[in-house]
Amino acid sequence: MVVQDVVFWILSVMAVCAALGVVLVKDLFRAALLLIVVFMAVAGFFVLLSAEFLAVVQVLIYVGAIAILIIFAVMLTRDVQHGNLPNRLQIPAAVFASLLLAVLVTVAVDTKWDFLPSEQQERAELVQTSSVTTLSGDVLTDSGVTSPDDQAEVQGSGLADLLIGDYVLPFEVVSVLLLAALIGALALVRPDPGTGRG
Amino acid sequence: MSFEAFLIVAAILFCIGLFGALARRNVLVVLMSIELMFNAVNVTLVAMAKYLAPAALQDDISSVLTGQVFAVFIVTVAAAEIALGLGIVFAMYRTNESVDLTEATQLRH
What we know:
The structure holds two protein chains of two kinds.
Chain A: H1 2-24, H2 28-48, H3 52-77, H4 90-110, H5 118-129, H6 137-142, H7 148-155, H8 159-163, H9 168-189
Chain B: H1 3-23, H2 27-51, H3 66-96
Helix pairs in contact in B: 1-2, 2-3
């Protein structure tokens, strides 16, 4: 537990400092690189929260795709010399953000959360980490899930089963959304057929 | 490493992102700030999935994964958003020769 605490605090400091850097650093390219640090720290949080599949997805999609796209955009727009200027709303925005932070922290600390009962914790963790692999009966027996019914339940409740089971409709809708967004992005940046320019 | 600590770190990340999205002139920084906010929300969702007991826990053990399912959808929507957002950035750069949001006033009457 102590190791996890230390890792958590390292990741927290890393994430918060890098996030501040993204917003405050003058050089856009450095800001994009700091964004990658934030993404990696969040992937670390996911590992700590026993969401290994999401951690991998985070590295693949955010670091591998989104951050690279942003770096391309920074390079292609050649506006790097202007850097990261504030607009007139800087002080109101800072006040609003800190007020919201105060509210969120108060809610997080004051709310009486309905925590997972400790006898369910190990089973829940098994289900959460087993997202993509199918656990064998032996592993489950070692972890205290002994009855065949319980084993079948844990084995059939990975993230993949949920995505193409209970949540198949949102899954398909989000696929169509992604396709539509990509086609829309292509249509936006395509040169005008008449003039050959944008 | 309590549940509240995760929520507070996520809240800090979200508020930094909010500040960046509101107070910066460069559209790329605004997009990066929006990604920060997406990530903060994802951390909150996954932390809740890990620590809190869902109402349907007694019927179905897989309900502890609901938060992760939501996070997967958010990642997908964030990817769609950044693709479209960068498309708009390039279109804006071509017409304005700048990525400064305060100069994007063509839609003003």
